[in-house]
Amino acid sequence: MTGYYDSHDGASAGDAEQPATEHGMSRRQLLRHAGWFGGAVVLTVASGDVISHIADSREPDSMTAAGATAAANSSLRFVQVSDSHIGFRGPANTDVVGSFTEAINQVNSLGFRPDFVMHSGDLTHLSTAGQFDQVKQMLTGMQTDRVFTVPGEHDSIGDAGRAYRQTFGMGTLGDGWYSFDTHGVHFIALVNTLSLEKLGHLGNDQIDFVRRDIAGLSSDTPIVVFSHIPLFAMYPQWGWSTDDALKVIALLRRFSSVTCLNGHVHQLFTKTDGNITFHSATTTAYPLPKPGRAPAPTPQVVPARQLKDALGIRTVGYRQGDRELAVKDQRLA
Amino acid sequence: MSPPSTSASAAPVAGDAVAIKNFAFSPATLKVKVGTTVTWTNQDTDAHTVTSAGSGGALHSAALNTHATYSYTFTKPGTYSYLCTIHPFMTATVEVTR
User: Per-residue pLDDT averaged across A143-161, rounded?
Assistant: First the structure.
């Protein structure tokens, strides 16, 4: 997929550590959200592009048909979609419902049933009840066991995310954050789009949640963090950063493998910072300019064929025992 | 970090209209007398809001789609800082005097 390029600056927007205040949720409340996938998984092998990408010599059967057959339920495979902007009307994409439908169809044609689908925000364009209802109905067309979401700033317009939480916030904590575990991976879904003032913001309550959430985890547990706005300084001039993300990053430094997956920027971007890898996802709606390549992050009008090249879905695979997750981005077919 | 190159001049401008264009409020600083009704018009294809900075401020528009407008009558003198909550790097000010 086109669109990758390098970044050289570190996450620059953090500030000093502040003492935690102990309130909010209990460990028991957390566990309510942490077990939806149930029991342990016996690792064998798996088939498909994503998994073959991370297969290695420790699994000699991994590329065989028998291995693939045995593998169906053994490895974690999930999908990230982002920035569907249901309700957007403009020349950059006159049919965002159509392109999101194509994305759903592509997920349903992957050749495997993803363990879950994460929509990483800007589900709607204007946070209206009708748009929330429409995108929720569309998401039910995903052939997967579970759909997760985090809100984008377009899902939090004018009400600090209340309408979003009414639609998608069941079972979440605080302003809509949560965590869960499956296949030996710990997932954290963060909210950094409420009450924006220049940059994304997590807030101390949420940072305290992360601190408690990961306190009992062994440092070799793979961590995946979802947020809408990047947790790294991708381009602060356009708000593509989170002002207090370094407090969370500091908490995650002790883990051997941390993968942060975000949306918001409508383009692919990957950056590695020590033990942490950041992957910005593309959109199913319309492209935005590369950082600084335009006066403002305005929706980009491109020829129809180029539009499809700019839109896409992401699959992520993980096999227990591996250190890294395999992230694969696909254009809309 | 430098401000967006599209920012309008910081020099105050009189009048009662603010254009929202190319992800910027223009003029960036509007100077009006108490009692003036100011109208914002979104000329972009993306949506924007007109929202007071901080909490509990006077300005609180709905999401403004293309060509949508928002009006507010300033009844007290002061400096009103506001932003677009969807694109919070868009900031501007209304200065209200007697």
Answer: 95
Nearest to A259 by CA among A182, A323, A209: A323
Taking only the tens place, the pLDDT of each residue in A1-29 is: 333 333 333 333 333 333 333 333 333 33
> What ipTM did this prediction achieve?
0.81
Lowest mean pLDDT across A27-31, A121-125, A268-272: A27-31
Q: At what angle do helices A204-214 and A245-252 cross, to 10 degrees?
A: 10
- pTM for the complete prediction? 0.80
Chain A interface includes B23 (CB < 8 A): yes
The answer to whether B62 faces chain A, any CB pair under 8 Å, is yes
Closest residue to B22, CB basis, from A126, A197, A298: A298
- Residue-level pLDDT at A327: 96
* B10 — pLDDT class (breaks 50, 70, 90): low
Could you say which of A156, A197, A237 has the minimum Cβ distance to residue B4? A237
Question: Between chain A and chain B, how many beta carbons pairs sit less than 8 Å apart?
Answer: 76
Query: Which of A89, A96, A126 to mutate to probe the B interface, most B CBs <10 Å?
Result: A126
Give the containing element (helix H, strand E) for A27: helix A27-32
Q: For B5, which residue in chain A has the nearest alpha carbon?
A: A295
Q: Could A196 and B88 be called an inter-chain contact, meaning their C-beta atoms sit closer than 8 Å?
A: yes
**SS3 for A129?**
helix
Give Cα A305 distance to the centre of its chain. Answer: 26
Look at A298 and B60 and tell me if their CB atoms are within 8 Å: no
Beta bridge partners of A327: A316
Which residues face B42 on adjacent strands? Answer: B20
- Pairing relationship of beta strands B78-83 and A276-280 according to DSSP bridges: unpaired
